[in-house]
Protein: ceramide glucosyltransferase
Amino acid sequence: MFRKYKLHRKLPQPALDEPYPGVSILKPLMGMDSNLAANLETFFTMSYPLYELLFCIEEEVDPAVTVVEELIKKYPKVSAKLFKGATTVGVNPKINNMHRAFEESVYELVLVSDSGIKMKEDTLLDMVCYMTDKTGLVHQMPFTCDRNGFAATLEKIYFGTAQSRIYLVADLLRVNCHTGMSTLLRKSVLKENGGLKTFGCYLAEDFFICKYFLDKGWRTTISSQPALQNSGLCDVNSFQARLTRWAKLRVAMVPLVIIFEPLSECMVIGACAAWASSVLFQWDSLAFYLIHILLWFICDWMLLTTVQV
Structure:
């Protein structure tokens, strides 16, 4: 029920006689893939009245420079600026890349959006609607666009089931489960602590940014639309490496959670429950295990179809 309440839910939009808050969108880029131009173009065609696009590219010879310049020429009515060259403020290359753009951003609301994200026309409006007076950070639950191939299907199933369960439960319990691929936040709150550069000393800057907002008493929430990852580079090895990197960060930051994490997986918790049922009630453990897996798969399918809408 919570998944249907939270995802793809239309919130009341701001009244027409009230000004929409302006949004500065930071796009850190490095290199390019076959989908980069199409992904970036969706940011130029959003149906939101007041925003600026700030593209951040570390190297002047990066091929992404040409893509950005062509889009800026194609959409001259959209306020957009290209920043070349990073400023070293810490060990985090993403923060180094975005620092100048953040400092020169015009609006109070800042959207940090990774290069592989594809936007719908109303995605930004959806995120802004969740930015209430008591909310300091709105982020999107990770998901993927429809793409061909086994690796793309594997990613979609993972983000639409296992990752979605964690994200939805964390949002319900007000637990920090923030991934910074698409995040709308209040610039003034970060400025109170020195700005974005303060988090350059962390590799997992997204976790600590969210922690900072929570420690300051601000609410954080996910918007109703998931983040549509649409990278043109999609293979099993890179996906596995990504999951491994996230697991290492969780071990370093929240080691207690990683101990209990296997109990959230289908096979492990099913085996434990089957053993317990056989000991306590003398039920057939194999039958219990198979029924558990079937019901788990049905629930995963229901969750995936809800996220996919």
Strands lie at 23-29, 51-57, 79-84, 109-113, 117-118, 135-139, 142-144, 182-186, 219-222, 227-229. The first strand starts at residue 23 and ends at 29. The CA atoms of residues 22 and 107 lie 5 Å apart. The chain has two domains: 2-234, 265-308.
